Structure formats: C-alpha cells, structure tokens
Amino acid sequence: MDKLLYLLPALACPVGMGLMMWLMMRPGRSGQTAPTADQQELLRLRKEIDALRTERTDVQDRPS
C-alpha cells in the first residue's frame, strides 16, 4: 500500500497531460467558432492574391 502512494504522484503528470492533449485535439470544440484576426487577415490576403492573378492574366491575354 505504501508503494501505491509513491506511485500515484508519479502517474498524475503523464495521465493529466494525456487527458489535456486529448481534450484539446477533439474535433468540434466550441471555443473556436469565430475566425481569429490572423485567419481573417489570411483570408483577405488570399482574396487579394486571387484578384491580382486575375488582373495579370487579363493583361497578358489582351492583344497588343
């Protein structure tokens, strides 16, 4: 019984870490429903790149 009491604190850290990792990796977490500022900036930059590519192909396709 004494050895079990020494073993419990040693197991608490890895078991707790595994539980936290499992909880964070679950799909469908309700904490990230709204896009963050970084995600919004990335979306804006992707739209700008698409617009520039479209503009460049329109200029290249135009006869001289």
Q: How would you summarize what this structure contains?
A:
With 64 residues, this protein is mostly helical. The protein is 77% helix and 0% strand.
Note the topology.
Layout: H1 2-25, H2 37-61
Give an account of the 3D structure.
- By secondary structure, the protein is mainly alpha-helical.
- The protein has one domain.
- 77% of the residues lie in helices and 0% in strands.
- The protein is built from 2 helices and no strands.
- It is rod-shaped.
Question: Could you list some keywords that capture this structure?
Answer:
64 residues, mainly alpha, 2 helices
Q: Give the fraction of residues assigned to helices.
A: over 70%
Radius of gyration, in Å, reads: 26 Å
Distance between the termini: 90 Å
Beta-strand segment tally: 0
**How many H/I helices?**
2
Runs in which pLDDT lies below 50 for 5 or more consecutive residues are: none
What is the molecular shape?
rod-shaped
Task: Output mean pLDDT.
Answer: 84
Oligomeric state of the chains in view: single chain
Helix and strand string, N-terminal first? Answer: HH
Beta-strand fraction estimate: under 5%
The structural domain count equals 1
* Main beta sheet strand tally, sense and closure: none
Helix-strand makeup class: mainly alpha
